[in-house]
Amino acid sequence: MPLYECVLMARNDVTQQQVEAIADQVGAQVEAEGGAIRKREYWGLRSLAYKIKKNRKAHYMLLGLDALPASVNEMERQLRLNEDVLRFMTVRVEAIDEAPSAVLTRKSDDRERGFRGPKPAGRFDSGRRRGYDDREEFRARDEYRSDRDEPRPGEE
């Protein structure tokens, strides 16, 4: 049977359990027609790029399906009728990757991200006025030069 991936977006008013119930209904319908769900991922409540049916956020769910084209058509029809589903997209794929999707791996990378270095001097600093040579890159350059014991320009 062909393999498909379906991403659906549900309204932010519904709970995660209700989104799981929608995925259960899809799974039951696909399995009743001889298919199977190979992958199921809940991506969480995420912000939308623009409003869809007056919603700014949506619950995202990824389903990896092994199903016949007729059962996929019926699944899409059921998703269109469901008022809690804002959008969905089903794509035929060659293989369903068993590893976590890029969305979930990126989420874990965001949590592990730590200190990224000092903030660059911007237009709106704190109240303290800094001189031209007081910026961090100039201090680092001066420390580097003092380590090498070279005379600075104009200090001969």
UniProtKB/TrEMBL annotation:
GO terms for cellular component: cytosolic small ribosomal subunit. Keywords: Ribonucleoprotein, Ribosomal protein, RNA-binding, rRNA-binding. It comes from the Bacteria. InterPro entries: Ribosomal_bS6, Ribosomal_bS6_sf, Ribosomal_S6_plastid/chlpt, Transl_elong_EF1B/ribsomal_bS6. GO terms for biological process: translation. Residues 106-115, 125-156 have a biased composition (Basic and acidic residues). Residues 104-156 are annotated as: Disordered. CDD domains: bS6 (cd00473). GO terms for molecular function: small ribosomal subunit rRNA binding; structural constituent of ribosome. Belongs to the bacterial ribosomal protein bS6 family. Binds together with bS18 to 16S ribosomal RNA. This is Small ribosomal subunit protein bS6. It comes from Acidisphaera rubrifaciens HS-AP3.
